[in-house]
Write a structure and sequence with these properties.
Layout lengths: L6 H20 L7 E10 L3 H14 L3 E4 L11 E3 L6 E3 L5 E2 L3 H10 L3 E4 L4 E5 L2 E3 L2 H8 L7 H10 L12 H9 L1 H10 L4 H4 L4 H11 L6 E4 L5 H12 L3 E3 L6 E5 L2 E5 L3 E10 L3 H4 L5 H7 L2 H4 L1 E12 L16 E4 L6 E3 L4 H4 L3 E7 L2 H14 L1 H15 L10 E14 L7 H9 L7 E3 L12 H15 L30
Bound molecules: flavin-adenine dinucleotide (FAD).
């Protein structure tokens, strides 16, 4: 037995051993941050950050650095395979719409093939009735509503009350007041995106956005290799030009001093001359330091409202979706009656060949929480059982096999709109983001900072272009419809209702 006097030595030895073990296994205590100098530091390796890096690469080569929080690039353009190395399907963004010229041009530049997946046979179910068009639902389910969906949107967008839109507390109250209570429920129930009615969104911002959205018609196009092809190929091109891209390196703090910016990440202490913050607001909120805090304190930043979104993606051993209803194929369906909310069966060849289906697509607050809690507390089997129940409700005759794989993805903020009570317009937020701190070489980049194109990656690219044009000597042009505070689209365009993904 050891004497008492020897015990402290044993304890110290044990502590040294423990430190060595922790150091070897998890890197604990091993590092003092490495110093790194970059002329431009880009925080966030999503579409906005990587577009910036891709364009800056040829000008500034290795003087550009990108720091991404996750162990992969792409942000909300993220795809999953059934098996490692196999074809992939999006658990975030899926498509490019016909009117998105900028994204088509980018696909061309990056060598990305886009396959069409035209929208036909969309089925809607509300209050227990199923239909392939909103007029049938209006007549059968909402008999008090005497005008069509298109006519109601026409009133919202082009009626006289639009001139007073800024005086409404939020979009919901504007709709209720302009078209009436039952019409409100009709429009809400037939829309796939229930978040538009469950979050308090700024009425003026939403309508400005809708002006442009109605221009984004008509056919969806799907990239071979998934939407992640955009960020991944931009990252490859940027690297070829020398840009340094670091993954698993979240910005923890951003400080400014003496005309320089200091970013700390788990591994690096970065000194930069210019800064592009391309982290989405939800990620950026966690960053400390005087520069980060000054931006977060501004009203413009605080009015950006994130909408929580759930997707569930399932691969099946065989297709079960031919002649689903009355001898018709159904490729998209949405319902108020089940938390699936919306499902989507791919039509483009690349995705259709995978026998994959997005069986849940929801931005309804309660339903997103439901999927999150079910997956966490009860596991994937419970999620699969609940999805099967919802699919049986939509397609009672379908013989649905057990899926081979189910991926539940919760996006804490799938997209951002301008929140209610804001004094800002979409255009003024985009202008602010170019230089949120006067006198500082700092830009905010991302779809959130360009609410006019909320919900689409082209918003992230347009935001990056604004920053590059204003502060980096570029002159990149893009079509900018609906950026004024008033209606810019003629009523005759309303044959095409909001496209939306
Ligand atoms: C379910 C869903 C469906 C969608 N469908 C479509 C669609 O069909 N078509 C379409 O065009 N768009 C679609 N979108 C929108 C599209 O995904 C976004 O517009 C786009 O990803 C925005 O790019 P971003 O660079 O602004 O932000 P993000 O994609 O969010 O990228 C921001 C990056 O910053 C990183 N980050 C955050 N904090 C930090 C930090 N502290 N340090 C370092 N890095 C940080 C994040 O990890 C992320 O990689 C969809 C989105 C969702 C959620």
């Amino acid at each position: 037995m050891l004497s008492r006097s020897l015990r402290p030595i044993r304890i110290i030895k044990a502590l040294i051993l423990l430190c060595a073990v922790l150091q070897a296994n998890i890197g604990w205590g091993s590092e003092t941050p490495k110093n790194l100098k970059c002329e431009v530091a880009i925080i966030g390796g999503g579409p906005g950050g990587l577009y910036s890096a891709y364009r800056l690469g040829p000008k500034l080569d290795k003087r550009v650095c990108v720091f991404e929080r996750e162990n992969h690039l792409g942000g909300r353009l993220y795809d999953e395979p059934l098996v490692p190395g196999g074809p992939v399907h999006g658990v975030g963004g899926l498509r490019v719409m016909e009117g998105q010229d900028l994204v088509f041009a980018l696909a061309n530049e990056l060598g990305i093939t886009l396959e069409p997946g035209p929208y036909v046979d969309d089925m809607i179910s509300t209050r227990g009735v199923f239909a392939f068009d909103t007029e049938t639902l209006r007549k059968e389910v909402y008999p008090l509503v005497s005008e069509s969906e298109a006519a109601l949107y026409n009133k919202l967008q082009f009626g006289p009350e639009r001139a007073n839109v800024a005086s409404y507390p939020d979009y919901r109250s504007y709709v209720r007041s302009v078209v009436g209570e039952e019409q409100y429920f009709f429009l809400r129930d037939i829309l796939r995106f229930r978040g538009d009615y469950t979050y308090p969104l700024d009425a003026r911002g939403y309508l400005d956005w809708l002006d442009e959205e109605t221009n984004v018609c008509c056919t969806g196009y799907f990239p071979v290799g998934g939407m992640s092809q955009f960020p991944l190929r931009m990252a490859d091109r940027a690297r070829q030009n020398g840009v340094r891209i670091f993954t698993s390196e979240p910005a923890i703090s951003i400080n400014g001093r003496g005309g320089h910016y200091f970013i700390t990440t788990p591994t690096y202490r970065v000194k930069a001359t210019r800064l592009i913050i391309a982290a989405d607001p939800t990620g950026f909120k966690a960053v400390t330091g005087n520069i980060a805090r000054r931006i977060q304190a501004q009203a413009q930043f605080q009015h950006l409202t994130g909408v929580k979104v759930a997707t569930v993606t399932q691969w099946f051993p065989r297709s079960w979706w031919n002649n689903l209803v009355e001898g018709r194929d159904v490729h998209r369906a949405w319902t108020t009656e089940a938390c699936l909310n919306a499902i989507e069966i791919p039509k483009d060849k690349y995705d259709a060949d995978q026998l994959v289906v997005r069986t849940v697509y929801s931005d309804d607050r309660d339903c997103v929480d439901f999927w999150e809690i079910t997956a966490r507390e009860n596991g994937i089997e419970a999620v699969e059982a609940e999805i099967n129940r919802g699919l049986k409700y939509l397609f009672p005759k379908a013989d649905i096999p057990k899926p081979l794989k189910t991926v539940v993805q919760i996006w804490p903020a799938g997209w951002y709109f301008l929140g209610a009570g804001s004094d800002f317009t979409n255009a003024s937020i985009a202008a602010w983001a170019v230089r949120p701190l006067p006198g500082e070489a700092v830009s905010l980049v991302g779809d959130a900072y360009h609410p006019q194109r909320a919900t689409w990656s082209d918003g992230a690219y347009k935001s990056a272009i604004n920053a590059l044009n204003a502060s980096y000597g570029f002159d990149i042009k893009y079509t900018r419809s609906g950026m004024s505070s008033g209606p810019t689209i003629k009523a005759s365009r309303l044959n095409s209702l909001p496209a939306r993904h």
